[in-house]
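Question (not urgent): is this output format expected?
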Amino acid sequence: TTLPLIQGALFMTGAPPEADPAAAHALIAESGAILIDVREDDEWAAGHAPDAVHVRLGDLDPAAYPPEQKLVVVCRSGARSSTAVAALTDAGRAAHNLSGGMKAWHEDGRPVVRDDGTPGAVI
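Got this back:
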């Protein structure tokens, strides 16, 4: 069952809050949400969203983010980021999983870049 939520994001009952690429972009652009990419170093190096912050899943510390800071978490397909969002929300943080991950982000026509700003790829 899905329930509509703020700015196009969706809450999935029994699952961490989800946002499709458009809703994730809106959360980032309109509310200052931080996009956290929890993929491994090689995945990040191949390509990531331009304004994302890289924090590998194993290094993610919910205490590093104030409770009022909105967060959007992404991985390749949405599975690892779902785990991260569960940990963040359990710790009282406002976090959304980018459903479909970087694959969906890229398929939605959103930019993927390398650290040097050149076009990247999702691996």
